[in-house]
Amino acid sequence: MFDNLTDRISNAFKKLSGHSVISEQDFDDVLKEIRRALLEADVNFRVVKNLQQGIRERVIGEKILDGVSPSQQIIKIFQDELTAVLGKDKKDLSKNNNKPATLLMIGLQGSGKTTTAAKISKRLESENNKVLMVAGDLKRPAAIEQITQLGERIGVETYSNAQAASPKELAKESLKLASNKGYDWIVFDSAGRIQIDDDLMDELENLHKTLSPSETVLVVDAMTGQEAVNVATEFQARMPITGIVITKMDSDARGGAALSIVAETGIPVIYIGTGEKLDALDAFYPDRLAGRILGMGDVVSLVEKAQQTIDESKALEMEKRLKNATFTLDDFLVQIDQLRNMGPMNQILEMIPGFKSMAGNISNDQMPGENDLKKVEAIVLSMTPLERRSPHIIGGSRRKRIAKGSGTQPADVNRLLNQFEQMKKMMKALSSGKKMPGMPF
To answer: Model confidence over 276-332: pLDDT tens digits?
Structure first.
C-alpha cells in the first residue's frame, strides 16, 4: 500500500533533514513536491489544498523553521494533519443496544461487497458474537451460492430464500429468525447497485427502512481512486451511511481513495481490505496509517498480528535458541510458517520502522519475497536432518543433490544458506537489544 506515495514523500523530506535552520523557500519547495505526489496518487485536489495549507500555517505560525530539529517537527506536523484527513479517531461497529444488531452492506457491483460481508462476519464471530449472514442479493446469478459457501468456510450460519418476493420481505424473515434464535448480529448482503439507477436505489432505501440497521456500511474499491468519493456521495444522498470499507488496498499503490473519502464525505472508514483471504481485513486506524504513509512503519499493528497468530511458547523457545546460537533451518521453517500466518510478506515488512530506508540498500536476491517462500520450503525439506541442523556441512555435491530434489538450482540453495546466516545474525542482534543498521531507533 502507498508504495509510490511513501517513496515520494520520504524523498521530499530528505531534503530538509540534517538542517538546523530551514528557509521558507526550501520548505515551500518540499511542500510543492508533496502536493504533486498527493495529486499523482489520485488524492482529491481540495483535500490536497487543505492539507498543504494546514501544514504551512502551523509550521510558519509556530516558527518551526528556525526552531530545534525543524525537519522532525515538520514531519510530526505533517503526520498530525494527515491523521486528521484520514479521520483522526478509529471507528468501531456499534450495536446501538439493538438485538439483533443489523449491519447492512451496500455498494456498487464488483466492489467486493459479498466477500467483505463474510470477512466482517468472521471478525464479529471472533469477538464472541453469534452472527447470521443473509443472502440479500436476489439479482446476481449464483450470489446465494457464493455467500453460502463463504459462510461454510468461516463457520457462520447463512440464511437465504431465492423465492422471496423482494429484499424487503427477506429482511423481515431474517429479522424474525435472528430474534427467535438469539443472534447478536445480522450481516445483510444487499445486491450491488449502479448509483445512477433510481429503481435500484429506491429498492435499497426501502430495504434500509425495513431493517433500520445499526450500521450501514458502504463498500468501495480502492482501485477506483477519486471515483470512490463520488460513489460515497451518491449513496449518502439517498440514506445515512455510518461507515466505509475500502477493498483492494493491497493492490492500490496510490492510496487516493483512503486519503480523500473521509475528508470529502465525513463518513469514517471502519476497515480496509488487504487481500483475498477471509482474514485479510484490517481495522482502520488513521494515526497508524499516517505513519505507514510517511514510512514510519506500524509497530502496534505488527505486534497485534503477531499476538493473534504466533504461538507464545514457540516464540520463547525460538528466542532461547537464538541466544544460545542453536537456531536451525528447521526453526527457520517454523518462523516462515508463522510469518505467513500473519499475512502477505510485503505488508508485514512495511510495518517495520525503518524498513523502507533499509530496503533501498538491500538487493532483491538478499531479501526473499512472499513468492519465494514455497521455494525456500522445498529446498529445506530436500535436506537431511543433519544438514538442517548443521548447514555448514553443505558442500558442492550436497548443493546439487538438494537442488535436484527441490526442483531448483544450486545457486538458489547457496542464496538460501547465505540468507539464513544473515537472518541468524540479525535476529541475534535484535534479541540482545542491539541497534540494526538503518533503523531509526
So the answer is: 889 889 899 888 888 878 776 545 555 555 555 666 666 666 566 656 556 788 887
CATH of 3-86, one of 3.30.1330.10, 1.10.10.1100, 3.30.450.180, 1.20.120.140: 1.20.120.140
Domain with CATH 1.20.120.140 in the chain: 3-86
Q: What is the CATH number that goes with domain 101-293?
A: 3.40.50.300
The answer as to CATH 3.30.499.10 being correct for domain 300-431 is: no
Contacts of 418 (CB under 8 A, 6+ apart): 366
Q: How many helices (H) and strands (E) does the chain have?
A: 20, 8
Listed in order, the ranges of the chain carrying CATH 1.10.260.30 are 300-431
Over the stretch 376-419, which tens digit does the pLDDT of each residue have? 889 999 999 999 989 989 999 999 999 999 999 999 999 889 88
Q: What is the pTM of this model?
A: 0.71
- Residues 6 or more apart whose CB falls under 8 angstroms from that of 204 comprise 106, 190, 193, 238, 239
Cα-Cα end-to-end distance for the chain:
24
Amino acid at 247: T
Cβ neighbours of 38 (radius 10 Å): 28
Average pLDDT of the chain is: 82
Helices 410-431, 329-342: axis angle to 10 degrees equals 80
Q: How far apart are CA 338 and CA 311, in angstroms?
A: 8
Furthest-apart CA pair in the chain: how many Å? Answer: 73
